[in-house]
Amino acid sequence: MITLDDRKAAFAACTAASFLTPLMASSVNLALPAISREFSMDALSLSWVATSFLLAAAMFLVPFGRLADIYGRKRIFVYGMILFTLFSFLCGFALSGSMLIALRALQGLGAAMIFATSMAILTSAYPAAERGKVLGFNVAAVYTGLSIGPFVGGMLTQFLGWRSIFYANAGIGLLVCILVLWKLKSEWAESQGERFDITGSLIYTISLTFLMIGFSKLPGITGAWAILAGVGGLVGFVAWERKTSKPLLDISLFAKNVVFGFSNLAALINYSATSAVTFLISLYLQYIKGLDPQHAGFILVAQPLMMAIFSPLAGRLSDSVEPRIVASIGMGIICVMLALLAFVGSETSLALLTAYLLLLGFGFALFSSPNTNAVMSSVERRRYGVASATLGTMRLTGQMLSMGIVMLMFAVTMGNTRITPEYYAAFLQSMQIAFFVFSVLCVIGIFASLARGRVR
Fold first, then answer.
1. C-beta neighbour count of 352 within 10 angstroms
2. Mean pLDDT of 387-408
3. Rounded-to-integer distance, Cα 389 and Cα 253, Å
4. Closest Cα partner for 131 from 267, 2, 308, 318?
5. CB 257 within 8 A of CB 379
């Protein structure tokens, strides 16, 4: 029997962790121009500072979700917090761009353990009637981290240097580690004693690596072959998972559970279309508009602030209204805003850009909490870990693909060059094309969201 104290501890620990990881991601985006100047990094290399974290997290999230179901969600969560905190601290001592990219990947390894377990712990701790509300607050914590991140990242970069961002995150991470070890007492391991699918895990992680490397190497033939190898590997992964007795990811969940399958597909498309927005707008504000990191951070707060305000309301709404209706309306708003962002140029006013970001954040709030509620409510209790990890993988894979699209645009329009004044026009062109592609993806996402059917 789970006590009220257990629930409170789970809520506090998971919400704190859900706040910390996006705080890290959004604050680093503001530091990218400063990092580029110190290490003389070109646009593609700079993209890898963000992408290496996402790639590592996406690669290991499903394997850690399965390990959490077998060996304990709290255990994996604790290890993840420790690793995330340690490598956050070490990122502050990076001596080169390559070293920073490698440390960011190791930081992503710890984040994968957190992402794989936090939603599953909350879903395990709370009854179905309260789940939408709790998940809504958890999503709000994510967006609060995203909201504060640009402001904190801009201020720290401008006054203390970009390395201070990693030191600050390590300090917060240490506090969360203490909270988890002190207060979180319960453990959940509904698949204890089952076998772990090592072969499937290797196929999965190698396939994602080839896929992302391929994006960075396009339009060259090496990139095309790498993407082909990655896609082939994922096809092989699906085939292996269908025949193994204890799969890493139960593919039947997608085939037999329409709500689960289409909700995850909608999440994948949504994150693929939205995750690179902050990355692109941060560069746009600092390079094209000439803003310092502090003022760029103030503007970038607009989108996640709306997410933080409206996510709990959307989560509660999805407890009484069909999640597909609320989520699909949110996806529609996102689609329109991305299409408008495709027309942003050097003369666009900051007030108009801020309005676009506010409405984009509102649309994402309407989508995310109800979609999460739909996924977690569509599976039985013993599969919460895998369901949480699968949804997290859709998010991280979507974020990775979003950055992959941006990297492809950079490679085609700019090549291996730094973002200097003579390349500002090329940067604007790549940004506008990326936003157009993102808006088209959201049109597909609306249909995926509607096709999931009724949850209740």
1. 11
2. 79
3. 13
4. 318
5. yes
